[in-house]
Amino acid sequence: MQIGGGALFCADKVCAYVTIRKFAVPLVLASTILTGCAKTGDIELDGGVGITAVRTACPIVGVPAGTGDITLFDPPASREASAIDVTATITNVRSTCSEAGADVVTTVTFDVLARRMRGDQPRTVTVPYFIAIVRGGSAVTAKRVDQVTLNFPAGQTGATAQASATSVIAKSAASLPKEVREQLTKRRRAGQEEAAVDPLTAPGVRDAVSRATFEALVGFQLTDEQLRYNVTR
Predict the structure, then answer these.
(1) Rounded to an integer, what distance in angstroms lies between the CA atom of residue 43 and that of residue 207?
(2) What is the pTM of this model?
């Protein structure tokens, strides 16, 4: 469920309303036809008035709030600050996207920065992460869990690792129907009644854009307790 730019995100049985930190935001087609070398933000005056915008089938990439950090405790059942063992954070999220074929393939790459409290012995820590494909801001259509390994050398409390995840979305699902594209790109002249109406306010158009909009979200695969700790701390 999407509320005010956020979504209902669940780990196991624990759910929380979270906001999404977005990194690659595809713009929706505006009320002008894209011609020549028009760029996003250009003012279109030829036969009508509007702002040129470009929509891509590539998913929005982000990290659901509450899943970008993980804290390990020793002993595991404690939640005291003195029991914090290892902390890790997802950062530097970037993506590459290909729309060349029948599928939209997006590879999301990110860094994991970790710190441990005791740095005497060498240590290896493995933490799970996920990539989830969300359609229309609320429906999780696919999810995959993987792991990233952090290696702490002896005498050092910090470690860095890089991880990646790939999403595949059918281009047909991420594309707007022809009639919706025509309604969005129809030229509207200043002074006409329809020129003052945003076509996205039409329920059919708005719903079609929502169905064709996907998000590729990455985060740590948290337990119930870990998610509750992140949300309530």
Answers:
(1) 26
(2) 0.71
